[in-house]
């Protein structure tokens, strides 16, 4: 806990497996306390600024409700409204906000923006999604798998679809926690060599596999994960991507090739009939709404650890 105070979360690659486990355990404890009516407000009087350069339902609401439940306040800062959107440098924004706030969450395009914000801020900076990583989602996902399966190490997760921010973050998070991870994506849409090498370097007793074959990826998998084919910022590529990802839909036939008790996961928002069928996402192996709820709990634990 001591080592997390004051830290940033830019990518889970910067955290040890013990630190990740600490956050997951705290999340499960705080969730349990809350359901038992125990009110704990370790961030009383603290303020989190939340900068959004992209849309959000889950990230915005879970951070804002989360900081409130911890006794603090959240400020929604749309880049359309703050001077950042009119060209004020990120470094000046970081220094100014550091004088008012106790933490900043940012959702933006490039990972470099988040890094620059963190370098220039004297308070913790949390990555709420970039084009490259979505670490808060993976904390909630790991919590969900842990709650459902009772363990992480030794399990296998298969990600089917675009080698995007979710694929990247899942590779890193799974490798950290000793899970095997297979990514099935068509050529041209596979995770970058850079992130793949990072994940490989992290993985010790587990395997990181990149393939273009969904059936191979889901073989022996305990978790099947997918995400949209066109992420925020890629809307104009929708038609092209629907062609490229044909054959990468998670449907009953693909799910049946995984382990019988496999979980279906999706960070949401989802497109039924594209990356996943309604039958699967609304079926009894799906845990998508537990994942969504756990954004609240995982991020409350994260904020408690970094800002407490
Ligand atoms: N999964 C996720 O980050 O959702 P939002 O885009 O709604 O925040
Ligand atoms: N890959 C998606 C995730 C949304 C939570 C995107 O970046 O739009």
TrEMBL record:
Any single Gene Ontology cellular-component annotation: cytoplasm
Pathway given in the UniProt record: Amino-acid biosynthesis; L-arginine biosynthesis; L-arginine from L-ornithine and carbamoyl phosphate: step 1/3
Keyword Repeat attached: no
Major localization class: cytoplasm
InterPro entries, alphabetized: Asp/Orn_carbamoyltranf_P-bd, Asp/Orn_carbamoylTrfase, Asp/Orn_carbamoylTrfase_sf, Asp_carbamoyltransf_Asp/Orn-bd, Orn/put_carbamltrans, OTCase_ArgI
Ranges of residues in domain Aspartate/ornithine carbamoyltransferase Asp/Orn-binding: 154-305
Origin: domain of life: Bacteria
Keywords per UniProt: Cytoplasm, Transferase
Function: Reversibly catalyzes the transfer of the carbamoyl group from carbamoyl phosphate (CP) to the N(epsilon) atom of ornithine (ORN) to produce L-citrulline.
Designated name of the protein: Ornithine carbamoyltransferase
Organism of this sequence: Aquibacillus salsiterrae
Taxonomy of the source species: Bacteria, Bacillati, Bacillota, Bacilli, Bacillales
Gene this chain is encoded by: argF
């Amino acid at each position: 806990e001591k080592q997390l105070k004051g830290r940033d979360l830019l990518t889970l690659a910067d955290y040890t497996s013990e630190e990740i486990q600490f956050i997951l355990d705290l999340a499960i404890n705080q969730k349990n306390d809350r359901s038992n009516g125990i009110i704990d407000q370790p961030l009383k009087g603290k303020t989190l600024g939340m900068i959004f350069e992209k849309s959000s339902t889950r990230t915005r609401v879970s951070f804002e409700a989360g900081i409130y439940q911890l006794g603090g306040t959240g400020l929604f800062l749309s880049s359309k409204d703050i001077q950042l959107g009119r060209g004020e440098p990120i470094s000046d924004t970081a220094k100014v906000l550091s004088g008012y706030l106790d933490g900043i969450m940012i959702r933006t395009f490039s990972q470099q923006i988040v890094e620059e914000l963190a370098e220039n801020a004297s308070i913790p900076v949390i990555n709420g999604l970039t084009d490259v990583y979505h670490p808060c989602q993976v904390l909630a996902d790991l919590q969900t798998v842990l709650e459902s399966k009772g363990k992480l190490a030794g399990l296998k997760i298969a990600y089917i679809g675009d080698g995007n921010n979710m694929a990247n973050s899942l590779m890193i998070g799974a490798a950290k926690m000793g899970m095997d991870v297979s990514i099935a994506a068509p050529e041209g849409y596979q995770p970058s060599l850079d992130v793949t090498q990072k994940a490989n370097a992290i993985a010790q007793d587990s395997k990181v596999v990149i393939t273009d074959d969904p059936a191979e990826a889901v073989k022996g998998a305990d978790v099947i994960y997918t995400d949209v084919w066109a992420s925020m910022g890629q809307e104009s590529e929708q038609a092209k991507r629907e062609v490229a990802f044909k054959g990468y839909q998670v449907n009953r036939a693909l799910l049946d090739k995984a382990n019988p008790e496999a979980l279906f996961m999706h960070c949401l928002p989802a497109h039924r009939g594209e990356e996943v069928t309604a039958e699967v996402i609304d079926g009894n192996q799906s845990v998508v709404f537990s994942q969504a709820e756990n954004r609240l709990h995982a991020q409350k634990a994260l904020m408690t650890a970094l800002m407490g």
